[in-house]
Amino acid sequence: MSQKLYVGNLNYKTTEDNLKQLFSQYGEVTSVNILQGGGFGFVEMAAPEAAADAKAKLNGTEFDGRKLVINDARPRAEHDGGRPGDKRPGGFDKRGGFRKF
């Protein structure tokens, strides 16, 4: 079972290949995804033990001139397809009518 890690405080010039090389020292890296312009990304490792080792040894260390922040990645929040502020179920819609769900 793989384990995904959040990697924050990345230098904007850090590449996915550089990050993969760094984490590969601790075990097999199955995927790396740096979000464009966000200064953070995700590293997925094949074994939870390797991820825990990498997190323990790399968190707070300097890489590309920045101190890394590494945590277990949280699952993505479920999205109900509504707009922010939508009240479901029931309630008044934006036109003043009552809706039931």
Question: Layout of SSEs?
Answer:
Elements: E1 3-8, H1 16-24, E2 29-34, E3 41-45, H2 48-58, E4 62-63, E5 66-67, E6 69-72
Antiparallel strand pairs: 1-3, 1-6, 2-3, 4-5
Structure commentary:
- By secondary structure, this protein is an alpha+beta fold.
- It has a domain at 3-72: Alpha-Beta Plaits.
- It has helices at 16-24, 48-58, and strands spanning 3-8, 29-34, 41-45, 62-63, 66-67, 69-72.
- A four-stranded antiparallel beta sheet has the order 2-3-1-6.
- It is elongated and about 60 Å long.
- The chain starts with a strand and ends in a 29-residue tail after the last strand.
- The relative contact order is 0.22.
- The model has no long low-confidence stretch (mean pLDDT 87).
Percent strand equals: 15-25%
CATH fourth-tier homologous superfamily of the domain at 3-72: RRM (RNA recognition motif) domain
| CATH fold assignment of the domain at 3-72 | Alpha-Beta Plaits
Radius of gyration of CA atoms, rounded to a whole number: 19 Å
SS-based structural class? alpha+beta
**What string, H for helix and E for strand, traces the elements in order?**
EHEEHEEE
Low-confidence stretches: none
Query: Would you state the CATH class of the domain at 3-72?
Result: Alpha Beta
Give the proportion of residues in helices.
10-25%
State the distance separating the first and last CA atoms: 39 Å
